[in-house]
Specification:
The complex is a heterodimer of chains A (147) and B (110). Helix content of chain A is 24%, strand content 31%. By secondary structure, chain A is of the alpha+beta class. Chain A has a single domain (4-146), classed as 2-Layer Sandwich (Alpha-D-Glucose-1,6-Bisphosphate, Chain A, domain 4), CATH 3.30.530.20. In chain A, the strands form 2 sheets. A 5-stranded antiparallel β-sheet of chain A has the order 1-8-7-6-5, covered by helices on one side. A 3-stranded antiparallel β-sheet of chain A has the order 2-3-4. The radius of gyration of chain A is 17 Å and the shape is globular. Chain B has 110 residues and is mostly helical. A two-stranded antiparallel ribbon of chain B has the order 1-2. Chain B is rod-shaped, with a radius of gyration of 22 Å. Chain B starts with a helix and ends with a helix. The chains are: A alpha+beta (147), B mainly alpha (110).
Amino acid sequence: MQNIIERSIRIQASKAAIYAALTEADKLTQWFPSSVEGDLTPGSQPLFGFGEHGKSRVSIVAAEPHHYFAYRWVPGANHCEGDVSLVATTLVEFRISEAEGGFCEVKVTESGFNELPADIKADAFKQNNQGWDYMVNRLEQLFTEAA
Amino acid sequence: MQAQVFKAMGDPARLTLLSRLASGEGHTIGSLSENLGMSRQGARKQLQVLVAAELIELHKVGRETEVTINIGQLQQARAFIRELERQWDQRLSALKAFVEQTDPSSEADG
């Protein structure tokens, strides 16, 4: 399946420090949402605040010290305050691994775009499993053809 | 609206219609639906899905229906994934800046 965004960065810090920055509200709010209402523990649905950009409820899927943290949310939308288990979401996963020279690599993946929403998967992608990349490629082609 | 766009583009017949429009192979329902393996009525139905996603517009011109493509909306769909990637790059940079600035034990734990 090619319906994944994958980004990574190298950080000069310990796995524990990076993990804390992902899973402790007072640290998380220093770099990501500006506020967190609720617990950042698996099964919880805290509300991430993005200041004037609104709020987005996320559903914590897993928290495994000090290497893995995952949640589900509605991508690109900061206005989903309802029960996120009832709507189409993507899965965001953070993986922390040790790299050389006192660095750690943090890899973030966001996946599930071709399940957005369920009826896309049900009818549109029934005959085509390549999902997102397929569409993006088609778009590129359309623009090339149109040019 | 994004979801509608993706749904609209997730069908081979609709993609063919869009492709024909984009490459200038036709600009009426009649010319677009030639050799599409479906009736004119069927093509019209598929075009309505694209209309709902604001990917195209239909205009009645005499007895024909003219179809125009909304390139902006197509670019928006492509831009969506790029925007999400950009956002993650920004967030990871912010994470790096925050952690490296506040973790005094990084050398020891490294």
